[in-house]
Amino acid sequence: MREKNLNFNKPKIFKFFQDKKFAKISKISNSILKTFGNDKEIYKIIILSEINEKNLDRALIVSEKLLLLIDDAETNYIHGNILKLQNKFKEAIIFYKKAIDYRKDFFEAYNNLASSQKKIGLTDEAFENYNNSIKINDNNLEAYYNLGNLLYDEKKFDEASTCYNQVIKINENFPKSYLLLGQIKSAQGNFEDAKEYFLKAIDKDKYLTEAYVYYVNTRKINKNDKIISKLEELINIKDLKSKCYQESFYALSKIYFDIGKIDEGFKLLKKSKNIKLRSSDFTINAEKNHSIKVKEYFFNNKILKLKNIDTNLIPIFVLGMPRSGTSLIEQIISTHSKVYGAGELTFLPEIMHLSSWDKNTDSKTFLQNIRKEYLLKISKLNIKQKYIVDKNPFNFLYVGFILKAMPEAKIVHMHRNPMAVCWSNYKANFFDNVGMDYAHRLETIAEFYLIYNGIMKFWKELYPDCLINIDYDKFVTNSEKNSKSLVKSIGLEWEDKISRFSENERVVVTNSLLQVRSKVYKNSSQDWLKFKKHLSPIIEILKKNKIIFS
Questions:
Q1: What is the pTM for the complete model shown?
Q2: What are phi and psi of 37, to 5 degrees?
Q3: What is the mean pLDDT of residues 532-543?
Q4: CA angle, corner 313, sides to 317 and 495, nearest 5?
Q5: How would you list the strands of the sheet with 339-341, edge to edge?
Q6: How far is CA 53 from the centre of its chain?
Q7: Are 409 and 403 within 8 A, CB to CB?
């Protein structure tokens, strides 16, 4: 039926909308606007229908027409929302501010303004506007939740907890707040309280599969745990979102490993990884080419070490292959009173990415910029200690740049049994971690290990006396003796409390958070042997490249 022959009226259109016939409204939208072209409510219905149909460009066109008709607070707010959905955050901010200019008590606009500001890194402004939204409406669940997430990202966990608890006070059936409170308790080492929050989140929403993942990763599961039947039921439900299947398979695989069902667990783990691979465009060649460019840069350029440096703040870079023991070493070092453990900072990779380092031949100016930018970012953490640990493992790519730009820095290189570290990468929950796409296939894990091994060999040959090299397996055989040696190598005096590093109350946000709260497990590098028959692709690649493991 052609639009011009349609017989409709306003109540009929509203009924379509009420019945969620968004596609129908979208199809006849031009005729509707010809008939009701001056009706704001009709415009809103069409815009919302187009948004529901994911026709964002069409929604924006209709919204622009509405703005020409009525330039008020709500219309600007609607337009800002469409731009926000299109990830046009800078443009969205303009319209949210216009909406607020028209209506100073528009708390929803303040909230969405803050969310857009957060997306482009304006965290101070976002913080202010979330609070503005809450001041206007202290029953504003969404603003409290968003502010909590901002504070969580800033590692202000106590303040974030206050926000999440306020969300629950407003609406006790808000499962994600329980999940995030559980994550905070886990990061603080309070696993029992975390457990209760995770179970509460699952109770409120059985499809919140992220809660299952956190639950199983913060404890060893026994065969009588009720969570098993919940997960087994979930994986047999048809038409779940792929993320739900992915996380359910992963959580159940970890449980099966815990209770000794190795083959069943590995099958589920592979299923989980394969789901992630479907949405990944990762290629190992890009990683290989990057490492080659780094080596070539140091071959082709004379790079002089910076002099006359300020040593008021000394970075300690703990690096290596992910899952090689970097979290353990950070926990030990940061127990010292003069050391702050900052976790996995993304500062250096971000600086290197934006610097066009591979095209820069003025090494002195280039190094000065690296130093300036990195220390500036560090200073914003407002730490009191003289030493700060950056344990981003991927900094292994930039060892040479660190040594030249920050000669006062200490570099601790962790290495571990190749098979142990490869298996640990595969079994870890790295689904949402940036830069970890290689960890979803056995073959690419092995290839990535070769990249890591090759560039670390390059750095050791180039700067043989500049690294503190630690063999994880040797270290854990006598952790106290080796910790003393490590602390001395950094240039610090021993403190007795370091031997009780597992009691360190610093917040730990890492896949290894359970391990760093536990006593050293001396035989962990042999665990891979239980899975040996499943790991043949890794074994073959490592053997072919003469990588020794036992």
A1: 0.85
A2: -65, -10
A3: 96
A4: 75
A5: 339-341, 387-390, 314-320, 410-415, 468-471
A6: 29
A7: yes
Angle between helices 209-217 and 175-187 (to 10 degrees): 20
- pLDDT average, residue stretch 6-12: 71
Please measure the distance between the N-terminal and C-terminal CA atoms of the chain and give it in whole angstroms. Answer: 73
Q: Is the dihedral of CA 504, 505, 510, 514 positive or negative?
A: positive
Cα gap 456→307, rounded to integer Å = 25
pLDDT tens across 359-405, in order? 766 678 888 999 999 999 998 888 899 999 999 999 999 999 999 99
For residue 294, give both structure tokens: 């780094």
Weakest-pLDDT range from 275-284, 303-312, 431-440: 303-312
Q: DSSP secondary structure string, 282-344?
A: --HHHHHHHHHHHHHHHHHS--PPP-S---SSEEEEEEESTTSSHHHHHHHHTTSTTEEE--S
Instruction: Tell me how far apart the alpha carbons of residues 111 and 288 are, in angstroms, rounded to a whole number.
Output: 43
Q: Treating both helix axes as pointing N-terminal to C-terminal, what angle do 107-119 and 141-153 enclose, rounded to 10 degrees?
A: 20
Select the CATH number that applies to the domain covering 3-278 from these four: 1.25.40.10, 2.40.50.220, 3.40.50.620, 3.30.470.30: 1.25.40.10
CB contact set of 471 (below 8 Å; sequence gap of 6+): 415, 416
Angstrom distance (rounded) from CA 37 to CA 62: 11
Domains 3-278 and 290-305+312-544 share a fold: no
Q: How wide is the angle at C-alpha 460 spanned by C-alphas 400 and 376, nearest 5°? A: 25
CB 322 within 8 A of CB 438: no
- Do residues 169 and 137 touch, judged by C-beta distance below 8 A? no
Boundaries of every domain in the chain: 3-278, 290-305+312-544
Classify domain 290-305+312-544 at the CATH topology level.
Rossmann fold (3.40.50)
CA–CA separation, 359 vs 362, rounded Å?
A: 9
In which element (H, E) is residue 390 found?
A: strand 387-390
Residue 1 has a pLDDT of 37
Q: Residue 128: its pLDDT value, please?
A: 97
Tokens read off for 492: 């610090």
